[in-house]
Amino acid sequence: xxxxxxxxxxxxxxxxxxxxxxxxxxxxxxxxxxxxxxxxxxxxxxxxxxxxxxxxxxxxxxxxxxxxxxxxxxxxxxxxxxxxxxxxxxxxxxxxxxxxxxxxxxxxxxxxxxxxxxxxxxxxxxxxxxxxxxxxxxxxxxxxxxxxxxxxxxxxxxxxxxxxxxxxxxxxxxxxxxxxxxxxxxxxxxxxxxxxxxxxxxxxxxxxxxxxxxxxxxxxxxxxxxxxxxxxxxxxxxxxxxxxxxxxxxxxx
Amino acid sequence: xxxxxxxxxxxxxxxxxxxxxxxxxxxxxxxxxxxxxxxxxxxxxxxxxxxxxxxxxxxxxxxxxxxxxxxxxxxxxxxxxxxxxxxxxxxxxxxxxxxxxxxxxxxxxxxxxxxxxxxxxxxxxxxxxxxxxxxxxxxxxxxxxxxxxxxxxxxxxxxxxxxxxxxxxxxxxxxxxxxxxxxxxxxxxxxxxxxxxxxxxxxxxxxxxxxxxxxxxxxxxxxxxxxxxxxxxxxxxxxxxxxxxxxxxxxxxxxxxxxxxxxxxxxxxxxxxxxxxxxxxxxxxxxxxxxxxxxxxxxxxxxxxxxxxxxxxxxxxxxxxxxxxxxxxxxxxxxxxxxxxxxxxxxxxxxxxxxxxxxxxxxxxxxxxxxxxxxxxxxxxxxxxxx
Lengths: 253, 387
Ligand SMILES: Cc1ncc(COP(=O)(O)O)c(C=O)c1O
What we know:
The complex is a heterodimer of chains A (253) and B (387).
Chain A: H1 3-13, E1 18-24, H2 30-42, E2 47-51, H3 62-73, H4 78-87, E3 95-100, H5 102-108, H6 110-120, E4 122-127, H7 136-142, E5 148-149, E6 152-154, H8 159-166, E7 173-176, H9 192-202, E8 207-210, E9 228-231, H10 233-240, H11 245-249
Parallel strand pairs in A: 1-2, 1-9, 2-3, 3-4, 4-5, 6-7, 7-8, 8-9
Chain B: E1 5-6, E2 9-13, H1 19-32, H2 36-50, E3 56-58, H3 60-66, E4 69-74, H4 84-97, E5 102-107, H5 111-123, E6 126-132, H6 133-138, H7 140-148, E7 152-156, H8 163-177, E8 181-183, H9 194-202, H10 204-216, E9 224-228, H11 233-239, E10 249-255, H12 268-271, E11 273-277, E12 279-284, H13 309-317, E13 320-325, H14 327-341, H15 347-358, E14 367-372, H16 380-386
Parallel strand pairs in B: 4-14, 5-6, 5-8, 6-7, 9-10, 9-14, 10-13
Antiparallel strand pairs in B: 1-2, 2-12, 3-4, 11-12
Helix pairs in contact in B: 2-4, 4-5, 4-9, 5-7, 9-11, 10-11, 14-15
The complex binds pyridoxal-5'-phosphate.
């Protein structure tokens, strides 16, 4: 079983929603980033999603985009991410996931990328601009390295398309809560419940809800329909305003 | 060949949340485009609203100066001043028949934004245009025209503040508003089916030009066909019906920027590498780490770090040749065509004209048919600021 799935299921076994924080690599600074990861891990994150900064992040809203572009200006690249993770391999309890866009991964070389993920203890990958139709060659390159490509689905994903994604999905299924980009929302659409129930009927792996989530209270109405919560913009804003990841994670415990 | 690919290039590298509207569009293309209802209305619009067929014009003075036989396909004579209107009326009508109420567009030079605003006004739809903040300043007359026709223009402040960032923002907006909104993509690039859809609407250029040239030249084809390449829509439209003619050389002109080695440019076919951006695998200006590099051209409509996938394919197979022209050469062509023939070309089109001027020795005695993709009124301020 992929480590992402086992970590999420371990949280579920305790009757909790598994926590999946997202932070762009190198944010808020090169050194501080690793300290934030340690705090997120210590605070019980099941999976930590590390953003691979890209110049043109079309699926991201202003908060994530701004943070990613700052990291790029600071010279963060895949080599820096892998080097840092390799040096800390085995020190995280959480499973590790890299999230980004296809082009930087493609330029790095898919096989080299997969091998470096394995060497750095990364067990999952989200590529925001890679729908099922184009994903075959990436899955094929990742398989020998046991890196799972996590599917993203949403409010407009038909049952048929969910089935396509479910066929060989590993780790967890990422359900995008809004038709839109990442970023905090005051409220989440009610329609989510119905679509989550559909996803439940098709995926056998855990389901995580993400995009627009900033507080655990928002999750109450989705109890039983999802297993994990992903939060990015809220955490980034929290850190950018001088707070710590530890403080952010407290209300979620 | 894989669906949506031209050889190795193309595809649908786009968030899953945009796949349903892309699939919906592809189905509408197949069902609506061939229908009598669509075709008769579209043909009528091209005739009555755009002014098609556009002329081909022989240039006697420049031909004499350069020692070749120069012809222009006059897309600058179209309503709203460029080839872009062929595509926006087509996509606008398609969207209307799909039941959409809003046309969303990105624009660089503003010509596509203006053309989308025209289509929206004609078809009684809403219009929303994303434009890089740099371009809003560079192409102010077009911003005014769009607003006058009822379009909402949003200045994009992120990234390089040019066309690439306007596309990013428009894609983000489409994610949210896909139920009511059609993304009227402005060039033969982006995710499948846009490269095919836009070519479908622009191929009228070469369909007319080929026939007009044969009629005026005792049934002879031109030796060389030339067009400027931004995203590549006027060029693919100009090339399409000449691709099967082996005697015709096909030349695309990319923007070399200032032309110094290492300068910012807009020539991904000449100076870029394979990569993935805006839903397509194509040639891109990018760093070795896969970050997209800023582009530059004095012509805002060419200022884009990527290119449509069909051009990447024509380049890879060698069927078309792609050359570069720098800012100064384009300005020279802008002045020369104005002075010698009384035609003020868009700075984008000036790149194509410049090819004939700069390569006249090599083209001696040949017939050269250039796509004059648009008129230069919008560029007066840019040219004034340089001279
Ligand atoms: C007059 C004119 N020509 C050419 C272009 C380049 O676009 P494309 O390569 O899609 O024809 C533009 C783009 O705005 C334009 O306005």
